[in-house]
Amino acid sequence: MSDKKLPLPPTLPPSIITSDNFCLFHKGDLSEDIYTCPKCKTIYCLECAKKAQADRKPCIKCKQIVLL
Ligand SMILES: [Zn+2]
Ligand SMILES: [Zn+2]
Fold it and tell me: Cα of 28 to ligand 2 centre, how many Å?
């Protein structure tokens, strides 16, 4: 017989970012128009992808240039 109580599992904060709906360029929620990296399939906002292309910034994950 044991009257030890199991400790409650720690509740995880809801700050875990899912990359499904997250733009790594502006670090926020994706807009409706999206751009998908042809190499790594990471999704960005279309607007952010346009800016990245203008600034010659590559995909944050795989460094593939943005091709629109
Ligand atoms: Zn990529
Ligand atoms: Zn964005």
Answer: 6
Position 66 in a domain: no
Q: How many CA atoms lie within 13 A of 45 on its CB side?
A: 15
Supply the range of the domain harboring residue 48.
20-54
The verdict on residue 4 lying in a domain is: no
Q: How far apart are CA 24 and CA 6, in angstroms?
A: 39
49/54 Cα distance (integer angstroms): 9
**Distance of CA 54 from the midpoint of ligand 1 (Å):** 17
> How far does residue 11's CA lie from ligand 2's centre (Å)?
29
- Segments of the chain with pLDDT less than 50: 16-17
Q: What is the model's pTM? A: 0.71
